UniProtKB/TrEMBL annotation:
InterPro entries: Glyco_trans_4-like_N (IPR028098). It is an enzyme of class 2 (transferase). This is Glycosyltransferase. It comes from Acinetobacter rudis. Pfam families: Glyco_trans_1_4, Glyco_transf_4. Its EC number is 2.4.-.-.
Length: 330
């Protein structure tokens, strides 16, 4: 099967990671893949036919839409897979002329779902996202998965416990709520990532006198090594599609506590989840996890097995191929 994938934008986040890793995994699974995306991603795919089109410009640009139409048409692909809302908004009006089976992946909660409804199948990355659609006959849930680590070795637990939070330093990740909640917590916290909120978060850490317990580590490329050292992961997001960090931590046998976002409620038990944007609830969840850490470790054991079954890149690829086969002539 020849799959043409389309990704708009030129950012660095979970969406871009998802598309690049899925494209590479589909090739390894024996499929032919063409990826239409910004030039910056060309070196990140392997065995994938890459066609550079800068879709970071306005989605209403007629010249760009014509270029996109011609590029998709030139691939002569068997199936079109469009990623996220901007690419969907650009491709949706072209579907009538493309005459090709089509799939769109919805990565997060959206107020307006109209642009997704012309596609033959809608992949949602969580049950929460699937519930956006009243007609579920074309909706399929495929959870985000990550590359399974070759070796999982947990380091001995030390006191005070070492927590970790990972993501771009942007408002949606709720790191300001996490830092606020960290007051009075008898544990260390690493926040890994870079972004426009860094200065504000640094000021918040100093204002709350948390410089001895909360560290901003910046962008790192050794996430698995950090998860190996961490006692638990905290997800404090206000809104999420996946999140990928949930899969990464559980595959490294690192316990996770989280706000109720994305696919979290499908994976974690209720006792490890708290409401979004609620400092007191998050602080209470963190305090309980620190005070009863052996219990957190014990209740996380079944989650590691679940992650092996459902949250690997291989599982995500296999489930995506099942969706393709529903509408493909191959």
């Amino acid at each position: 099967m020849h799959i043409c994938m389309v990704m708009a934008g030129d950012e660095e986040g979970g969406l871009e990671k998802h598309v690049v890793e899925l494209a590479n995994a589909l090739v390894r699974a024996g499929q032919k893949v063409t990826l239409i995306a910004h030039q910056k991603y060309a070196t990140r795919v392997h065995g994938v036919i890459f066609k550079a089109v800068d879709l970071s410009k306005s989605r209403n640009n007629p010249i760009l839409l014509w270029q996109l139409y011609k590029t998709i048409k030139s691939t002569q692909a068997d199936l079109l897979h469009v990623q996220a809302s901007k690419a969907a908004a650009m491709v949706s009006p072209l579907l009538a002329w493309l005459n090709i089976p089509s799939v769109v992946t919805v990565h997060g909660l959206k107020k307006n779902t109209k642009v997704f409804k012309k596609f033959d199948r809608i992949i949602s990355v969580s049950q929460n996202v699937a519930q956006l659609f009243t007609d579920t006959t074309r909706v399929r849930v495929v959870l985000n998965g990550v590359q399974q680590p070759e070796k999982v070795t947990r380091l001995a637990v030390q006191q005070p416990l070492q927590a970790i939070a990972i993501g771009r330093l942007v408002s949606v990740k709720g790191f300001d709520v996490l830092i606020e909640a960290w007051q009075g917590i008898n544990a260390q916290l690493w926040i890994v990532g870079e972004g426009p909120e860094r200065e504000a978060l640094e000021q918040q850490i100093h204002r709350l006198n948390l410089t001895k317990t909360v560290q901003l580590l910046g962008q790192r490329d050794d996430i698995n090594a950090l998860l190996q050292q961490a006692s638990f992961l905290v997800i404090s997001s206000r809104k999420e599609g996946g999140p990928y960090t949930l899969a990464e931590a559980l595959l490294m046998h690192c316990p996770v506590i989280s706000t109720e976002v994305g696919m979290v409620a499908q994976i974690l038990p209720e006792r490890l989840i708290c409401p979004v944007d609620d400092v007191l609830a998050l602080r209470q969840l963190i305090q309980q996890s620190v005070a009863n850490y052996p219990d957190l470790q014990q209740c996380s054991q079944p989650l590691y097995r679940l992650a092996q079954d459902q949250l690997t890149l291989e599982a995500m690829t296999a489930n995506t191929l099942k969706v393709y086969r529903e509408i493909s002539n191959d």
